[in-house]
Design brief:
The protein has about 90 residues and is mainly β. It has no helices and twelve strands.
Length: about 90
Amino acid sequence: QTLKSDATGGGRIALLGQQVENAGTIESPGGQAILAAGEKVYLQASEDPELRGLLVEVDVGGKAWNQATGETSSTLGNVTMVGLAVNQDGRAS
């Protein structure tokens, strides 16, 4: 399965669930690209102006996987991958 998404102007793209996989392209040029896996995923805005994007936390379980064909990028923002197991086989920039 391939996902191609584009969020401009500081937008966010979030893949959230108990198991999250990316085999395509996720682009969030000025925002945040999130892969977060767990039974529960918690998102919170940061009170620190130096941090870009949301704070992300998960509880028990979960596998986040950027597969070998996966490309996750955020030129001026950030890429966040969180889970009990995080596999980074593709490209994250």
